[in-house]
Amino acid sequence: MAFITLDIKKLEANFNYLNTLFKKNNIELSIVSKILSGNKTFLSELLKFDIKQVCDSRVSNLQVIKSIKPDIETIYIKPPAKRSIASIVRYADISLNTEFETIKLLSKEAKKQNKTHKIIIMIELGELREGVLGEDFMDFYESVFQLENIQVVGIGANLSCLYGVLPNHDKLIQLSLYEQLIEAKFNKQIPYVSGGSSVTIPLIFQNLLPKGINHFRVGETLFLGTDIYNNTKFKKMHSDVFRLYSEIIELIEKPVVPMGEFGTNVEGESFEFDQSNIGKTSYRAIIDLGLLDVEPDHLELIDKNIKFAGASSDMIVIDLDENKKNYKVGDLIEFKLDYMGILRIINSKYIDKKIKNGN
């Protein structure tokens, strides 16, 4: 069975680096754990860190988090579906919201469960994903403040996730001004201005983050060390927290060019081959990993002397060329993954999950 490893020491080093950075700048750090897909083994290790808040976009994942650490504060980070209201109130201390009718249902359910449910109201800043329009937000807040068992604890915004609209000083100043207007008009304290995410971190180093932005929701940079804004890596962070390993289940020297009449493969793709390669051979390894688990576009081979030859639902073929490293059946092929690759792999029930450098 293919397996993915999480290096807990490297993850802890990344967390400590970010935690120190945010404390120095008086920012609350909330960890986005959705990349772990509710895996209890991985979450149990993550929650040993000095984490105050965890965000996730699946209620079932928040349920697992609460089962591990009941007192940790949890945030549901997308507008709630009406059918999930009861479980969101039960397992999420805070939720991000944009629809008044949904907040009314949260109010009703919170009263039923004898709870006060906290909410962060999201404002549209140009990314055109979730968010109340600026011209509507004052009336929106006024209506929400009248609901029972609901406490507005923040104003927030999302950028870069859908169309790649980057955060900048002007957009985040705008978010801070919204918060100031609300506090002034309604005489209410809004603790969180949640305008930060992984993509916003470089603004801290550039001294471009407005002082009013005091809450960051961070996932990708913690787990991959990525500087999303500049499409690079932070030098003081680890980018190899996760590694994927897959076993060679066949290794045979075969022709480079397939033989027969060509149609399309399982993904509907058709291929053309350089006819000058007819008669040539290379060593081809089949590994126990396939499109059902992850797409090769999200994988990076650690061994740069080998390459992908193709993939089907349950198997990936690797071209070993002359097999200079003398791979054999049973050996492991090692991969680095991007964010979407990790999401897919951890979410696959066919991939084993292992802790590296744990206690």
UniProtKB/TrEMBL annotation:
Isomerase among keywords: yes
Domain Alanine racemase N-terminal: 7-225
Alphabetized InterPro entries for the sequence: Ala_racemase (IPR000821), Ala_racemase_N (IPR001608), PLP-binding_barrel (IPR029066)
Gene Ontology CC entries for this record: cytosol
Required cofactor(s): pyridoxal 5'-phosphate
Keyword tags: Isomerase, Pyridoxal phosphate
Pfam families: Ala_racemase_N
Coiled-coil annotated residue ranges, if any: none
GO molecular function: alanine racemase activity; pyridoxal phosphate binding
Source superkingdom: Bacteria
Name listed for the protein in its UniProt record: Alanine/ornithine racemase family PLP-dependent enzyme
Organism phylogeny: Bacteria, Pseudomonadati, Bacteroidota, Bacteroidia, Marinilabiliales
